Amino acid sequence: MAAATGDRGPLSNETNEMKRRVVVTGMGVVTPLGMELETLWSAILSGQSGIHQLSLINPGPFKVRIAGDIPDFDAGRYVDPKDLKRLDRFTLFAMYAGGKALEDSGLDLQKIDAFRAGVILGSGIGGLAEIEIQVERLLSKGPDRVSPLTIPKLMLNAAGGNLSIRYGLRGPNYTVATACASATNAMGDALKTIQYDDADVVVTGGTEAAITAMGLSAFQNMKALSDRNEEPHRASRPFDSGRNGFVLSEGAGILVFEELEHAQARGARIYGEVLGYGASGDAGHITQPDPEGTGAARAMKNALRDAKLDPANVDYINAHGTSTPLGDKAETQAMKAVFGAHAYKMAVSSTKGHLGHALGASGGIEMVLTMLAVHNGILPPTINLDDPDPDCDLNYIPNHPIERVAYTAMNNSFGFGGHNASVVCGKVR
Question: Distance (Å, rounded) from C-alpha 4 to C-alpha 19?
């Protein structure tokens, strides 16, 4: 169904009368380019790269010695000091970004129904650092020296569980693990949870901290990573003909999804509306995308159908765009299949050129950036796009942002295992 004549934005409330409307009222991030929204957004628009020589672990033994790690991360006032050693790094990221998102939302948690406020997060790997630490301890010191905190630290749901405990959020609470699509699948579930009246507020997004010796070795040895060690800031180059793999990153992107009338009743600042969600599976190779992008295309189509929008209504896409030879081409094919001639009219960019690939957290971070683009009327660029791949011939906003109102935008995430997820958002109408 098309949008109303002359209106390229979201459909009217009457069109979606069977579903409650969902908006974003708070956001928080942990990224290699900053841990404040304003800092991150400024760095993105100015074309900065958060990729550098690996510093979180000793780079010496590795063929790949660059990453988007965050060596100076400090959980600060969002984590009780006594809990710092009880939480894995990926949970600490979520606690910080989640705390910032709730603070940004202006919610008074004492005035809402705690059973109507939930946490649905995504993470592809979870507590990998804790696994490595405890396996080494087991082998070197014996089973009696393995920490009793091991399981509560490494389990994927530790981030969401600790957020709910810290803030007393007693609504639906679970974690989605679909590799690099985790955060976007989690946000899709959060959207449905509010639409169908199972909650009024859901803290959602993703978190990941997989820059460890084992994590880097594994991705390096499967030849997924760029080895442009001498030019780290130029290593992540989505859609460029010189791309040769993604750059491993870490961080978190957490958003507060809230039912529209609930937000309006308390006078909340609203970044934009979440309009639809779609998902699919490739049912093909465990790590390689379908070359034609068939599954990715279906996820995008499903998101548009859920939002009751025609393809021509989409103004901007924050692409998955990891900087891999196969993935970027497949996503381009998928967008052409979904949007037809309109694919060449809309704007597309991948912010992984700036930030690298934060795996299960990437969809959350990129949703934050997509919402900022919608809210501010500025579309972020794809940096390091100097020589576009002839097979990637859409408007990927090379190197410099553009001022353009995006009434409707899409955020794509695709993960190992053939998991595809897309979320549509836009200005509130």
Answer: 19
- For residue 147, count other CB atoms closer than 10 A to its CB: 14
180 carries an active-site annotation: yes
| Whole-number Å distance between alpha carbons of 146 and 148 | 7
pLDDT of residue 14: 43
pLDDT digits (tens, 9 = 90+) for 31-40: 999 999 999 9
For 324-350, how does the pLDDT look when each residue is reduced to its tens digit (9 = 90+)? 999 999 999 999 999 999 999 999 999
Residues facing 118 on adjacent strands: 202
What gap in Å lies between CA 110 and CA 108, rounded to an integer? 5
User: Which residue is catalytic, options 180, 233, 354, 419?
Assistant: 180
- Predicted local confidence at residue 1, as pLDDT: 33
Of 326, 361, 180, nearest in space to 254 by CA = 361
Q: Which residues of the chain have pLDDT under 50?
A: 1-16
Cβ atoms within 10 Å of 113's Cβ, excluding its own: 11
Q: Is 320 among the catalytic positions?
A: yes
Name the token pair of 40: 């991150």
Which position among 233, 262, 320, 354 bears the catalytic label? 320
What is the spatial distance between Cα 191 and Cα 188, in angstroms, rounded to a whole number? 5
Catalytic position from the list 233, 262, 354, 357 = 357
Told to judge if 419 belongs to the known catalytic residues of this protein, a careful annotator would answer no
